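tmp note - Multiple sugar transport system substrate-binding protein
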Amino acid sequence: MNKKWLSAAAAMLAAATALAACSSGGGGGANTASGSGASNCTNTIPKKNLPVVTMWGWYPNMQLVVDNFNKQNGEVQVCWTNVGQGSDEYDKFQTAISAGTGAPDVIMIEMDRIPTFQIQNALVDIKKYGFDAVKADYSEGAWKDVSVGDAVYGVPVDGGPMAMIYRKDIFEKYDITPPKTWAEYEQAAQKMKDAGGPAFGDFAANVSALTMALQIQKGAAPFTYDPAQQSSIGVKLNDQASKDVLDYWGRLARKELVGTEDQFTPEYISGVINGKYATYISAAWAPGYLTGAGVGKGEDTGKFAVAPLPQWDPANPVQVNWGGSAFSVTSQAKNPELAAKVAYGLYADKESLTHGWTNQIIFPLNLKALNDPEFVNLKVAFFDGQQANKEVYVPAANAYKGVTYSPFGQYYFDAMTKQVSALIEGSVTGAQAADRLQEDVASYAKEQGFTVQ
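out:
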C-alpha cells in the first residue's frame, strides 16, 4: 500500500468540519449490522426484527427506493441518510475513513471516485458476495467502470452514454443535417457561422470529464492502473489522440464556431433556452437536467432532438460515457456480505427503476430496465416525442466498453480545467496543453509515491 498516497488522499478529501449526522449508537431496538447504528434514519424501518444496514445516498427518489427494498426483503432492512451530494458526502466519508469510524455500510459514489477510496482500503471487493448472481444484469462496460483491476467495488445504477442534442428549429433554418462525424460537425459549424447563425456548440473549461470522454472516443487511454501494483500507474495524457481532440476544439473556439462559456451556469442555461447554441454535446442524463433547469418549456418547447454522438471514424464507431453512480460497500461494514446484498438489491426492482427513468432521475444501467420495451420505445417529451432511447441512448449504452479511472481523478480534472482554460485564452495550442497536462499530472503522481509508466 502506498502510504504517502493515503496521506495525500486524506488531505485532499478531508472535511474541515466535524462529521455530521452519520454516527450514532443503536436505535429503535434494531439489530444493526454496522457500527454506525440506525437511530437517525430518514426512512422508517418496517421490519424491526431484521438486521439493519446503514447507507448514504442522494438520488431524489431514494425514499421510494429504500421503502421498496425494505418492503420486499425478508433478510435485511436499510437505514438511509442523505448527508449531502457529491463532494459534501465525500468529505464526510473521508473524515470517517481517517477516523476509522462513522462510515455507513453502503455508500452511493460516482464511478470515477471509486479508485480514490479503494486505494485507501475504504471499500470492499464485493465479487465474492453474490456477484455471479447479478453479473448478467449489467453490461461489461458498466462493470468495468466500478472495478479496479479484477476486483468489483460497486454496483452500477445509472450512467451517461453520450450523444448530440440539437435545436431542430435552428438546424432547419440553416439547412443543417445532424453531422455523423466530427469533420461534418466542423463543416456544419462553419456553414452556420457564415450564414450569420449562432454558435454551433460550446467548448467549456469546467467539464473535464466530458473532454476526457471525447479524447477516449478518439483512442486515448489516460490511465492504466492495477491494484496488484499499487505503487505504479500509467499516465498518458499527451498521446496523439488527446492532442488531436484538444487541437480540434481549440480550433473551433479560435474560429468562433463554438462558444467557450462555462456550463451548468445560469448564463449557459439561458443561452440554451434562447438558441445561443445549436448543439449540446452531453449525456443521457441531460434531458432531465435541462428540464429541471427550465429548458424545453415555454417558447422552446418541442424544439430539441437528439442524434448519435459524431464519430472520428464512422467505420469504427466508439461510444463513450459521462457520469454515473454506484452503490459501494465500505470497509467499516461489520457484515460485508449483508451490506453487499443491499448494494445489489437497491434500485434493482422494477418499480424503483421505472420511477427513476420515467421521472428522468436516472438513465438505468440495469439491463432489466435498459431492455424493457416500455423504456426502449418511450416517446420522450423533451425531444418532442422522439424515441430517443431506441434511436440513440440504448445503442450507445450497449456498445460502451468502460474505462480505467485513476486514484487521483479530481486532481486530473482540475489540471485539465487549467489547461483547457489556457487553450481557450489562446496562450497554448491543443498539443501544448496536452504536454503541460502530462507534465503536471505525472509530476503529481510521482509526488504521491507512484512510479509513472
